[in-house]
């Protein structure tokens, strides 16, 4: 696998996800280190979509701890049930937030973040991490993002 992504410019979002997925599978197939694979996944998502912030929080005991990410510095620890990430963990479901100001308990790592999607990574029935993607635009995520990111975390689950 070459170390650059092939991304056709000007494609709709669903097509870009479809183009990215097999490349991520190939990029990570020969690497057994979880951090390396999570790091390249965050970088690939940022490169393909220009998201404001994209990264992983990994379950450690009663907290999520910041993992590989791309974007501005972020909060390092989030308790179960807190914020969008902690809610996604506690409820083991994707949480899509069109307007972070309207989400009770949202944790503002950056005031530039306006909308957010958090997808749990589930291994053997337990949440082991979450994928968090933030946008600096309101209402920037939809069903296409949810579907594609839920597919992507199935790959990420194999690294845990
Ligand atoms: N906004 C998240 C915290 C993580 S940062 O956005 C990177 C939350 O409410 O859980």
Question: Can you walk through the features of this model?
Answer:
- With 160 residues, this protein is an alpha+beta fold.
- It has one domain (13-157): GAF domain (Beta-Lactamase), CATH 3.30.450.40.
- The chain has four helices and six strands; from the N terminus they run H-H-E-E-E-H-E-E-E-H.
- The protein has a six-stranded antiparallel β-sheet, sandwiched between helices.
- Strand 2 and strand 3 (77-79) form a beta hairpin.
- Helix 1 runs antiparallel to helix 2 and helix 1 runs parallel beside helix 4 (143-157).
- The longest helix is centred in the first third of the chain and has 17 residues, at 13-29.
- It is globular.
- The two termini are 22 Å apart.
Give me the secondary-structure topology.
Elements (H helix, E strand, L loop, with lengths): L12 H17 L4 H16 L3 E8 L2 E8 L6 E3 L3 H9 L3 E3 L17 E9 L2 E10 L7 H15 L3
Antiparallel strand pairs: 1-2, 1-6, 2-3, 4-5, 5-6
Helix pairs in contact: 1-2, 1-4
The structure holds methionine sulfoxide (SME).
The site of methionine sulfoxide (SME) has 15 residues, from helix 3 and strand 6.
């Amino acid at each position: 696998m070459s170390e650059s992504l092939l991304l056709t410019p000007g494609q709709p979002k669903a097509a870009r996800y479809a183009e990215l997925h097999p490349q991520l599978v190939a990029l990570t197939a020969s690497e057994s280190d979880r951090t390396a694979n999570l790091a390249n996944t965050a970088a690939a998502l940022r490169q393909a979509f220009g998201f404001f912030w994209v990264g992983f929080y990994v379950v450690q005991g009663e907290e999520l701890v910041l993992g590989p990410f791309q974007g501005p510095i972020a909060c390092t620890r989030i308790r179960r049930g807190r914020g969008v990430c902690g809610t996604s963990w506690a409820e083991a479901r994707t949480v899509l937030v069109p307007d972070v100001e309207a989400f009770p308990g949202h944790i503002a790592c950056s005031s530039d973040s306006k909308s957010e999607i958090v997808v749990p990574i589930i291994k053997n029935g337990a949440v082991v991490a979450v994928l968090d993607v933030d946008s600096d635009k309101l209402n920037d995520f939809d069903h296409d993002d949810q579907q594609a990111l839920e597919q992507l975390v199935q790959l990420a689950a194999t690294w845990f």
